[in-house]
Design a protein that fits this description.
Enzyme class: hydrolase
Distance between the termini: 44 Å
Subcellular location: Cytoplasm
Number of domains: 3
Largest sheet: 5 strands, mixed, barrel
CATH architecture of the largest domain: 3-Layer(aba) Sandwich
Pfam families: RsgA_GTPase
Main location: cytoplasm
Bound molecules: guanosine-5'-triphosphate, zinc ion
Radius of gyration: 21 Å
Number of helices: 8
Family: Belongs to the TRAFAC class YlqF/YawG GTPase family. RsgA subfamily.
Shape: globular
Number of strands: 13
């Protein structure tokens, strides 16, 4: 597409590495762009206005974001994707997933009002799978959509199942190492491996890197996208106020506003409606003891002063 009077062209950020990003122009061609100034770092999924200078570009504007998915550890903020429709958390029967990591990813999505979708892979593993599926019961009760996958065995069927959920949307895929994220991306994006090679070469001048977030189109019409992002581990949530945490946990949420103290932390107070629901048979929204422990641990973690 032609540049406007100021020489600006529209583009989409499709990969990021450090300060420079790869931008896809309206016609589909891609080029390296650098941010203008120190602030305003563009992230994958950003719609930008860029200007050509020599054979690279500078990003002059970032369009307002619908949402920004980020995790923040104690040291630095790592925002990594913007303008998402949903987050797909891919876990597996083996290696055993960490419920705390799963809970963190869901809370990060809830905080930005991005719809989460959980997929449990390796249903061919029999008993180990059923055990993992049972561990996810509280998350089904919370209303999160959940898929059973066997990506290595039943690729074609899984592909159909996934397409129904992904079509026309932009989905960030998150998952711990070994759950099958590469298998899933290769199933849905033919040629993904080759693309990754090209991107890392472009961004990193030939050095191989797997640490950048990458946008993949699933269809030639460029209407359905997957974003692959490393780093499910160390999912810091330091950008979230502890007092806001309970609202981001759908099993705690229905009990809020019913505690004796308006500023109840739901950790130890008498007359706490959340505590009353933990492992309770009475009432319609029970909270498992494990989920309350995750809440407690996170609340304490987020209450620590940030260490810089
Ligand atoms: N049994 C079983 N194994 C699977 C299935 N899907 C993937 N795997 C295997 O699980 C292992 C991890 O799969 P990957 O796709 O490499 O997982 P990943 O999440 O990308 O892992 P990293 O590369 O470590 O980030 C591989 O050995 C796959 O062959 C499945 O449905 N069943
Ligand atoms: Zn309370």
């Amino acid at each position: 597409m032609a540049a406007d009077a100021a020489g600006l062209r529209p583009g989409l950020v499709v990969a990021g590495h450090g300060r420079h990003v790869l931008v896809e122009a309206a016609g589909g061609e891609r080029l390296i762009c650098h941010p203008r100034g120190k602030k305003n770092q563009a992230v994958v999924g950003d719609r930008v206005r860029w200007k050509l200078s020599h054979d690279e570009g500078t990003i002059e504007q970032i369009e307002p974001r619908r949402n920004l998915f980020y995790r923040q550890d104690e040291i630095r903020t790592k925002s990594f994707a913007a303008n998402l429709d949903q987050v797909l958390v891919l876990i597996a029967a083996e290696p055993e997933f960490s419920e705390s990591q799963l809970a963190r990813a869901l809370i990060a999505a809830e905080a930005e009002r991005i719809a989460p979708l959980i997929a449990l892979n390796k249903s061919d593993l029999g008993e180990a799978f059923e055990r993992a599926w049972r561990r996810l019961q509280p998350y089904r009760d919370m209303g999160y959509p959940m898929l059973r996958l066997a990506l290595r065995q039943s690729g074609a069927a899984d592909r159909e199942q996934l397409l129904q959920r992904l079509q026309g949307k932009t989905t960030l895929v998150l998952g711990p190492s070994g759950a099958g994220k590469s298998t899933l991306i290769n199933l849905l994006v033919p040629g993904a491996a080759a693309q990754t090679g090209e991107i890392s070469q472009a961004l990193n001048s030939g050095k191989h890197t797997t640490t950048s977030t990458t946008w993949y189109w699933m269809d030639p019409q460029r209407s359905t996208a997957l974003i692959d992002s490393p780093g499910f581990q160390e999912f810091g949530l330091h950008h979230i106020e502890p007092a806001r945490l309970a609202q981001l946990m759908p099993d705690l949420r229905p009990h809020l506003g019913q505690c004796r103290f308006y500023n109840c932390t739901h950790l130890h107070e008498p007359g706490c409606a959340v505590l009353a629901a933990v492992d309770s048979d009475a009432g319609s929204h029970p909270i498992t003891a494990h989920r309350h422990r995750i809440y407690r641990d996170l609340f304490e973690e987020l209450s620590q002063p940030a260490r810089y």
